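Posted in: Structural Biology > Protein-Ligand Complexes

Title: Requesting predicted complex, zinc ion in pocket

I'd be grateful if someone could produce the 3D structure tokens for the following input. Sequence and ligand are given below.
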Amino acid sequence: MRFRSVWTMAFAAMAIGCCEARAQERIEIFDTHLHYNQEPSPFYPLDQVREVFRRNGIVGIVATSRPNKGTHELIDARWPELKVVPFIRPYRVRNDMQTWFNDPAIFELIKSEYARGYYRGIGEFHIYGKAAESDWVKKMVDFAVERNLYLHAHCDEEALLILLRHNPKARIIWAHTGFSVPPARVGELLDQHKDALWGELSYRGGITGGDSKLTDDWRDLFNRYSDRFLLGSDTWINERWFGYDTIFKEYRGWLAQLPAEQARRIASGNALRLFETRARD
Ligand SMILES: [Zn+2]
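-- Reply #1 --
Done. Output follows.
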């Protein structure tokens, strides 16, 4: 009897292992860094974009585009299988990236886009060092806090800390998680800014080594902060749309090396939780 129950348990464990593995193969993904740029036309028309999302298991996107017309189109498409979370891109043309933080016209752009009523954030915007101290940046941060909008910031650590100082209630998704900021420092920042800071992982260096295995530093970070990281494609140029399948194949490769519940949080759980409720509690 005892012998038989041991075997039953062994088979049950194998079955669970098998299903866990299968579940991870098709883990649902929320792409929190998507640009559907249109200058003047997008790389893929909408029907092809939908197919790209479908074959990559994408259940949601943070939609942005330059100009914002691409975001309007993704909202208007109303695909039932996809949650679209629109962010205001504070750029009209590519060159605005260099000057937006001192440009009152960009603040007007943010206000007029916001009036559409469906936006959940502002970004991705680019800001480095003390440029973040400008009055217009502070106005934008305050505007976001007053309306429960997230900020998606592509910035260095110095600018990140200035943004957080502008308004202690700011909620910032750190694009690329600082690219190369040492993992130990990323951990400190996440500790110091609970409920205010999340790391988005596109182009983030050091997550895997040359052997495609998770590095110890990042396995450790994900162990401690699996509720604070988000995935993104960053389709800032056409090549990223062309390589979309490869980008998510790589993510799935290292997600599969994590405990299933951590992988699920990073892949989509955190994004679904962040964008579920409007109000900061
Ligand atoms: Zn970026």
